[in-house]
Amino acid sequence: MDAQAEGTDEAARAEAREAAAERAAELNRQLEYHAYRYYALDAPEITDAAFDKLLIELQQIEAAYPELVTPRSYTQRVGGYVSPQFQSVEHMARMYSMDDAMNLDELDEWLERTEAALGAGHATYTCELKIDGLGVALTYEDGRFVRAATRGDGVTGEDVTLNVRTIRDVPMRLSQAALAHMGADARRPIEVRGEVYMPKGSFLRLNEEADAQGREPFANPRNAAAGSLRQKDPKVTARRDLATFLYAVADTAPLHVDSQHAFLSWLKEAGFSVNPNVARCTTPAEVHAFCADALAHREDLDYDIDGVVVKVDSFAQQDELGFTARAPRWAIAFKFPPEEKETVLREIRIQVGRTGVLTPVAEFDPVTVSGSTIARATLHNEDEVHRKDVRVGDTIVVHKAGDVIPEVVGPVLAKRPADAAEWRMPRTCPACGSPVVHEEGEVAYRCVSIDCPAQVKERLAHWVSRGCMDIDGVGDELIDKLIEAGLVHDVADFYQLTADDLAGLDTGRTYLKDDKRRGVRAGDPIPVGATIAAKVVDELVKSKAQPLSRVLFALGIRHVGKSVAEVLARRFLTLDALIVANEDDIAAVDGVGPKIAQSVRQFFSVPENLAVLERLRVAGLTLEEDLSGEAARASQETGVAEDLVAAQPLAGLTFVLTGTLERRTRDEAGAALKALGAKVTGSVSKKTSYVVAGPGAGSKLAKAESLGVPVLDEEALEQVLATGEVPAAE
Ligand SMILES: NC(=O)c1ccc[n+]([C@@H]2O[C@H](COP(=O)([O-])OP(=O)(O)OC[C@H]3O[C@@H](n4cnc5c(N)ncnc54)[C@H](O)[C@@H]3O)[C@@H](O)[C@H]2O)c1
Ligand SMILES: [Zn+2]
C-alpha cells in the first residue's frame, strides 16, 4: 500500500471515529433524558423497547470504539434517580441492574459463558419471573422493619419507609422461625430486596379514575407503582393498591443459607411475599422451557412481568462469578419480545365524558396484540396526539402498555399518505355543538354546557354503575331510550319511573329472525318485558338505601373519585352538613385538599344541582353515611337481595349453555341469565329446564334431545333475556 492510500485510509478511520463519538454523545443525552422521565417523573415518553434499542446502539458503538467508554456513559451506570423530595439512604451493599438477553441466542451465549466459567454441568439455575415493578430494599433490625428505600442510583436510594409501611404484605416483624434459622446472627441487620408492583386490575381502576377526573393516567402498571410509592404523603400511597415480591438480600452471610432457592424458602418462612413461579433447572433446555412457559402464561397473571431472571443457584458460585460495573455476572434477564403490530388509523373520534372532557380516541383496523383483538385506544388529549404526531390515514404501531392497555406507539412515517393532515381538536362539542373551553394550565378541553346530551348520558350511566348506586338492569341502550323518550334527563328522574313507563320501551336490540308465533319480524326492536320493567323498578327502590359515600361518588363531582367520596362522607356524615360546609373545612379533610374542596363547593353552589338533590331527597334517598359498621350494612344488603329472589323472573329455572354464541360469550350469557335469577349448570339432566345451543353444539345437545329437555337457539335466548319470559311449551 502506498503512503497516500494509507493517509486517506487513516483519514477515513478518523472521520468514522469522530462520527461514532458524536453519535455516542447524542445517545447518552437521549438516554439521560428518558431515564429522567422514567425514574424521576414516573412518566416515560417512549416504550421500554425503544429505550433498550438506544442503549444497545450505544453498547455496540462502545464495543467498536472502547476508548469512548467513560465512567459517565449510560452503559456503565445503574439507571435511577434520587429525588431531593426524599431523605437519601445508603444501601448496605450496592443494588445492581441486570444484563439483558433480548432473545434465546443471547440467553444461550450467557449459559455457555457461565458453564465455561464454572465447569460444564456444574451449575444449577434458579429461574424466576421478572416482575415489572420498581426495586426496593427493606431493612430489618432485631427482626423489626426499620427502613425502606428505592434503588436510586444503586448506591443511594430514596427513603420511602412510611410509604412502605402502608403496603399490606410487607411484614413489620420477621417470624421467630426465620430468626431462629439465623442463630447467633439474628441480631444483625439485614436488607432484603424485591419489587413493589401494582396488580393489573388496580392499575386499570386507578387510570379509569384518573381519566374521569381529568388527571394524567399512568403509562403502565410499573409507573403507577413507582408513582404511588414515591409520594411525599404516605396517605396517598395507602390508598393505592400495592404489593411486593421479594427475591434478594444485600448480604447472605447472616441468613445461614447457601443458595437462591434455599434463600427464597427462608424469605417465605420469614413472612415475605415470594413469587410462587420458580424452577430449579440444570440444563439449558429446562431454562428454555421455563421461559417459554412464562411467556405463554404472562397474560394469566394479575401482575406484569417483562421477562425471566435466570440466576446461578449456588451462592458460592455467585461469588466466584462476581459483578461488572452495573450488573451481576451470575444472573441474566431474558426479556420478552414486545408485541407491537402495525395497523391503519381510520379515525380520531371524540368522546365526551361525564365531566365534559373531550377525549380523542384512535380507531384503527382490528389487530391481535398479546392475545386479544384491539381496535381502539385512547389518545388522552390534544397534546398527546401532537406529541405522537399521528394522523388519520397513517399506518401506526400499536401495543399494549404494560400488556394491558391498548396504546398507539406512533406513526410509521415512511408509510404516511401525502394528504394526511395534522389533527386538531374540534372547537365545538361534537355532541351538542357548544364551543369547548380550554382552561389555563389544563391539558383537557371541555364542553361546559349543562345540557350536553353526551354528558347527560355519561352522568346517568355513572349513576347506575356498579361502584356507584349499583342499579342492575339499566344499561347504556336503555339509558339512550329513556333519554329519547324524554323520561329521564337527570339522575332524580330515575326515581319517578314506573314499570308502565319502562314496559314497552325498546331495549335497543332487535330480533334476528322472523317469529310468526310471536308476530315479530327480523329487525323489529325487542321491547322491555313487564317482568324486566318490574325488576328495574325494584332495583331503583333498593338503590335508595345506598349510603352517602356512594351518592357523592355517583353525582360525578369533578375530582371526587370513590376514595375522596368515602372520606368526605365519613367526615360530614350527612349531605346537609356537606352542603353548608365551607371550602376550608372541606380542604382540611385528610386526603382532600384545596383543588377538590373548590370543586365540591362549586358543585353545591349551582342551583340546578341543588334542585336535583332536593328531588332525590323527596324520592326517599338516604343521603347519610351509615357508620353502624360494614357488617350491618352487609346484612342489610343480603336482606334486600333475599326479597328480590322471589321477584326474579327466571328463579327456579336451570339453563345449560353449549356451542358458540354470536352476540355474547357463553360466560356473558350465563351471567345475564343468573342476573334474572336462573341457575346455570354445566351438564344436562332431567332437572335442566332449557338447553341453549349454538352452532357446534355436540353431546349436550344430543342428551337434551334424548331427555326431552327444550332447546333454545341464540335468538330465543335473546328474547328470554330481553323479556324475562321463557317460551310457552310447544
Ligand atoms: N421507557 C423509558 O423511557 C425508560 C427509561 C429508562 C429505563 N427504562 C427501562 O427500565 C429497564 C431498565 O431498568 P433496570 O436497570 O431496573 O433493569 P431491568 O429492569 O432490566 O432489570 C433489573 C431489575 O429487575 C428487577 N427484577 C424483577 N424481578 C426480579 C427477580 N426475580 N430477580 C431479580 N431482579 C428482578 C429488579 O428491580 C432489578 O433491579 C429497562 O427495561 C428499560 O427499558 C425505560
Ligand atoms: Zn357538549
TrEMBL record:
Q: Which SMART domains match?
A: BRCT (SM00292), HhH1 (SM00278), LIGANc (SM00532)
Q: Which parts of the sequence bind NAD(+)? A: 48-52, 97-98, 128, 151, 195, 311, 335
Q: Which domain of life is it from?
A: Bacteria
Q: Which GO terms describe its molecular function?
A: DNA binding; DNA ligase (NAD+) activity; metal ion binding
Q: Which cofactor does it need?
A: Mg(2+); Mn(2+)
**Positions of the BRCT domain:** 645-730
Reactions performed catalytically: NAD(+) + (deoxyribonucleotide)n-3'-hydroxyl + 5'-phospho-(deoxyribonucleotide)m = (deoxyribonucleotide)n+m + AMP + beta-nicotinamide D-nucleotide
Which keywords annotate this record? Answer: DNA damage, DNA repair, DNA replication, Ligase, Magnesium, Manganese, Metal-binding, NAD, Zinc
Q: Which GO terms describe its cellular component?
A: cytosol
Residues forming the catalytic site: 130
Q: Which GO terms describe its biological process?
A: DNA repair; DNA replication
- Signal sequence range: none
| Broadest EC class assigned to this enzyme | ligase
Chain positions recorded as Zn(2+) binding sites? 429, 432, 447, 452
Enzyme Commission number(s) from the entry: 6.5.1.2
| InterPro entries for this protein | BRCT_dom, BRCT_dom_sf, DisA/LigA_HHH, DNA_ligase, DNA_ligase_AS, DNA_ligase_CS, DNAligase_adenylation, DNAligase_N
Please name the Pfam families in this protein's record: BRCT (PF00533), DNA_ligase_aden (PF01653), DNA_ligase_ZBD (PF03119), HHH_2 (PF12826), OB_DNA_ligase (PF03120)
User: Known Gene3D superfamilies for this protein?
Assistant: 5' to 3' exonuclease, C-terminal subdomain, 6.20.10.30, BRCT domain, DNA ligase/mRNA capping enzyme, Helix hairpin bin, Nucleic acid-binding proteins
Read off the CDD domains from this record: LIGANc (cd00114)
Tell me, in a sentence or two, what this protein's role is.
DNA ligase that catalyzes the formation of phosphodiester linkages between 5'-phosphoryl and 3'-hydroxyl groups in double-stranded DNA using NAD as a coenzyme and as the energy source for the reaction. It is essential for DNA replication and repair of damaged DNA.
The record's comment on protein family reads: Belongs to the NAD-dependent DNA ligase family. LigA subfamily.
User: Protein name, please?
Assistant: DNA ligase
Give the species this sequence originates from: [Collinsella] massiliensis
Q: Could you read off the lineage of the organism from its UniProt record?
A: Bacteria, Bacillati, Actinomycetota, Coriobacteriia, Coriobacteriales
